[in-house]
């Protein structure tokens, strides 16, 4: 009878210990199984996404800041708050006011070719500014106290917003 009671008690202790370990959801100490490149608006982020236990985890700060959110850390909580003034527009902002209608038939003429050339030039400038934003964001991550980098990032964001307005104006013509 004592052996039966001892066996039952040992089994209960092992069962409770196993459940306590299984209930843990922390990723601390887990092995990264893979890394993936993250592209935002066609531009590669400096920080990769990682895969742990079959789930992917993206760099919240880089994506949040690129989308124009204020990213903050308080204790063990990451917050994405109101957009900063002059921040990049979100995808919803970009698509606001777009209406679908019949597709116009384009005829090749010099005005259309000139408009396409202007739009292509603006797109090239946008690519350069996005590269500058990503580069400056990465540098700022390494040196978060640099006021010069913060100012430069805000200038790039303002330039990005201006270029989007220019492109929209050309598309409206």
TrEMBL record:
Signal peptide annotation: 1-22
Keyword Signal: yes
Keywords for this protein: Coiled coil, Signal
Coiled coil start-end: 146-173
Protein name, entry field: Copper amine oxidase-like N-terminal domain-containing protein
Gene source species: Paenibacillus graminis
Organism placement in taxonomy: Bacteria, Bacillati, Bacillota, Bacilli, Bacillales
